[in-house]
Amino acid sequence: METKKVAFYTLGCKLNFSETSTIARSFSNEGFDRVDFKEKADIYVINTCSVTENADKRFKTIVKQAQKVNPEAFVAAIGCYAQLKPRELADVEGVDLVLGATEKFNVTYYINELINNPERGRRVGEVHSCEIEDADFYVGSYSIGDRTRAFLKVQDGCDYKCTYCTIPLARGISRSDTMQNVLKNAKEISEQGIKEIVLTGVNIGDYGKGEFGNKKHEHTFLDLVTELDKVEGIERLRISSIEPNLLKNETIDLVSKSRAFVPHFHVPLQSGSNAILKKMKRRYMRELYIDRVSKIKEVMPHACIGVDVIVGFPGETDEHFLDTYNFLNALDISYLHVFTYSERDNTEAASMDGIVPKNVRAKRSKMLRGLSAKKRRAFYEKQLHTERTVLFEGENKEGYIHGFTENYVKVKTPWNPELVNTLHKVHLTKIDDDGLVRFDFVESLVI
Fold first, then answer.
1. Integer angstrom CA distances of residue 438 from 218, 221, 384, 402, 426
2. What's the whole-model pTM score?
């Protein structure tokens, strides 16, 4: 019998990538051949996201891409959008199967049931989507598709009630992997020759809450990072994103003295206006955010700090936006991830007054993206004429190889395949026309 081919497409966050990778390994274990999404496959699995309006819209385009390559292919939708609006996805032409939060890790079971069923005739999107309260168990996952770094999931779900966010509806309550399983996965990753692990989750600072759905706090996030720092073979550990109210001094101090954790923090802010933060039901005011940035810079002056910010939230006046702009401009941060607010069904914010016109949202987004470019340039300039360690990526981009320093400065040098997945000490010399940094080699760490 001919081996069936499966292809994957992932929308959204690092957490989704880690879960896609784990699901792909389950297909390989059952004898499927994984191929690129652009190639002809028997089965296409699309891991969906519902954080932004665009992610929703892109789903239909991706289904069409798959059907164009193979009109007879079996198409399955999994992930956050599949949990939130299963019927909507099932009604998209060409979609055979929609799996929600608890079912997605059993996708091979459902697919085998359907493709081996001789009764299967006219396409009807079959839905298996749980009540989100049933998503109270934990499935660990990690991605190893990239030779250079892996995304390691340590936590899932969220107990916060931010008024703009659908993630608690899509992923359920906050729950964590066991310390033992995280360390086992980290060791498996290190055995693949991967040099960097990025810790991912929905709210990773909440790690330790809700192991397997209960509320015991056997370990904390500090316990986790302390133990991960001891895993041999992993040269770099990076915290993907952590809420300011959960980023404790002890964690910052540990990173500053760590063997493997790098001086790079991504800390969501969402607004620099306390009035808007209250409407968003965030769990801090901007004064705490200033305190967290100050603490990081006090112990690691060279640390890179990234910031998430949302523009155009209901009720955000010009004054509120300028408050945010000026707040960020004065803050010692390195770059911004700017999100334009989009209404999401079943969220509190969707029914709030003070809707900001879309053209105003777009203008504010453009202003903050400009500020981000300015901040990144200023941060890079501060790093010139310093020695840093670079981990090189695996892709040849127009004759250049790129890499990142430990504090997330992106560098480039002429392509050399021998540099792929190696660490080298370099001296940063200048910023090129494309905004990337050039360097001189100091010494190879031969890693």
1. 46, 36, 9, 10, 9
2. 0.88
